Every structure is written in C-alpha cells, then in structure tokens.
Amino acid sequence: MTRSNRRTFVRHTVVLAGAAALAHAGLATAQSYPTRPVTIVVPHAPGGAVDSVARIFAEKLKDELKQSVIVENRAGASGMIGAQHVARSEADGYTLYVNASIHSINPLLYKKSIKFDAVKDFTAVSMLTQGALIFSVPPSVGATSVSDLVAKFKASPNRYSFATSGFGSAGHLGAAQFLYENDLGQIPIVLYKGAAPALQDLVGGQVQAMMDPMLSSLPFVKAGKLKALAVTGAQRSPLLPDVPTLRESGMKDFELYSWYGLWAPANVPPAIVKQLDEASSRIMAQPDMKSKLETFGFESAYKNSANFAKFIDAETARYKVVIEKANITVD
C-alpha cells in the first residue's frame, strides 16, 4: 500500500468510525428516551378543537412514555407562532407539536411572511383523528335546508355573511368552497379570532352561516340556538343522524374534514419517531380513546409516519385548488 493510499484508508476509517459513534450515540439516546418531561406545543388558544385533541392525547401519551407530558399553548398568527417555535426547537423528541389541517394551509396563504417550511422543518409523526364540520345557521335565517339557504343568499346577498373562526382554517376553506361552487362569491366571509366569538355572533344573528367543528358547535345545535343544515363529511354523523351531508344536499363532490396530527422538529432520530408513532397507534386504538373522541365529533383516522406524510402532500394539493378557485389571498 502506498503512502497516499494509506492516508486515504486512514481518513475513511476515521470517517466511518465517527459515523458509527454518532449512530451509536443516537441509538443510545433513543433507547433511553424519554428521561425528562415531554412538551406538546399547541399553536392555538386553550379550549378549542386542537387544544382538546392535544390534551386527550397527552393524557394517554404520558402512560405510554412513562413520563410527564405537558401541553403548552403558543397561540397567534393563525398557529404560525407555535409552529415556528417547534421548527426551531431541538430535534430530540422533547418538543412535539399537535395541530390541525391549518398547518398545511398556512404555507399556501402566507407565502411571503411565513418563517418556516411546513414540510422540511418538521417530522410528520402520526395522524391522530379527524372530524367533519357542522354547517349551521341561526334559526332567524329561516333556512331549513342547504338549497333553501342558497336561494336566500342569491335573492338578497347583501343581507348575509359567513363566519369563520380562523383565517385559513378548514371552516374558512369550506365556506369559500361552498360559496364559489354556488356562485355566491359576493357573500363576505367574516374573520373571527376563535370559535367562541364567531359562534356568539352567529347565535345572535350578526352573521348568518358557519362551518365549524362539532366540538364547539354541537352544544348550540342541541340547545336549539343553531340549526344544523348539513355536515361536511362523507357520511352522516352518529351525533346528528337526521342531518344530511353536503353531498346529500346536492354538492356531490363536497367532502371536508378538519384533521389533527402529531409532528416533531425535523431530524428527530428515527428510533424516537418510531417510538412515538407506535405509541400513537396504540393510543388511537384504545376503545375509551375512540369513545371520548366520538363524543366530540371526531373519528379514528390514525396514519403512521410515512402515510401521514403522503396524506399531507395530497391534502395540500387539494387545498391549493380551493384557494386558487376562491381567490383567497394574504400576501
């Protein structure tokens, strides 16, 4: 062996040894994970659908990990403040992130101002659950069906408006899709900072329609303060068996869910991702977990890490079409 070849061999040996040491260190970290409390960041205020899913999940995750799991709310900027915090966190599995479909919608709307990459800066760990929305109106509108509401909107468009609990939320995109598919682009969509103030004005008649998760809207429907015209899922909800889907109401291609997932920062060791994903699978399969989620209008929709990533890509492409057709712009 020549001196040059010996030097090359030594260099390769050192590199390979270094890689092996790093791999061993990563394996050791994964095997001991977690050794301290894990934080789940929720990028929205307490009390909403995302927060509720995160807290139900966290209670189960602490049993799986045999470690404390803390839910931390970092609300603001349509969820982007909390997302940015997670994107910049250590990739060690101790900072996790639960959000809804808005995580994949924001990059399509805030193209210039968003400060992270919703795909590259995160690891898609597991999809957890999904829920159809309730399409409701206050009784004062006098609509008894979706077609009845469309007729009223077309007859007097200046009298009506749609509410949404958050810009870029599933409810916002659902409202936009409903309006453009029915040639009702002149009906304004009013932005609220959360479901509570939007529902308050909807019940009061200041706005006349809304698509919103069952968790927040169903109590008002059950109390007779809102009239449910339809649900946005592919099938009727067992919580509202007499309420038709939008497909049954004449919009044959309309299907919309708000879905909820678990992410971590990019580059979390694969062994930790696998551990979290397997824990998610067991949690979402538990009968009491399914039962509790069903009372809030959610259904089992677990997907493993690889399938969740593919699902996100497909949903993002679908949202892009809706946003372009409805001409929704921010920057």
Q: Which short descriptors sum up this protein?
A:
331 residues, alpha/beta, D-Maltodextrin-Binding Protein, domain 2, 2 domains, ten-stranded mixed β-sheet, 11 helices, 46% helix, 19% strand, globular
Describe this protein's structure.
By secondary structure, this protein is of the alpha/beta class. It folds into two domains: 35-130 and 258-326, D-Maltodextrin-Binding Protein, domain 2, CATH 3.40.190.150; 132-231, Periplasmic binding protein-like II (D-Maltodextrin-Binding Protein, domain 2, 3-Layer(aba) Sandwich), CATH 3.40.190. Helices cover 46% and strands 19% of the residues. It is built from eleven helices and ten strands. The chain has helices at residues 3-32, 49-65, 80-87, 102-109, 146-155, 170-181, 195-204, 214-222, 270-285, 287-295, 305-326, and strands spanning 38-42, 69-73, 95-100, 122-137, 162-164, 189-191, 209-213, 227-231, 257-265, 299-303. Strands 1, 2, 3, 4, 5, 6, 7, 8, 9 and 10 form a ten-stranded mixed β-sheet that branches. β1, α2 (49-65) and β2 form a beta-alpha-beta unit. α2 (49-65) packs across α9 (270-285), α4 (102-109) crosses α11 (305-326) and α6 packs across α11. The N and C termini lie far apart (63 Å). Mean pLDDT is 90; it is low at 7-26. InterPro entries: BUG, Bug_dom1, TAT_signal. Pfam families: TctC (PF03401). Keywords: Receptor, Signal. This is Tripartite-type tricarboxylate transporter receptor subunit TctC. Residues 1-30 form the signal peptide.
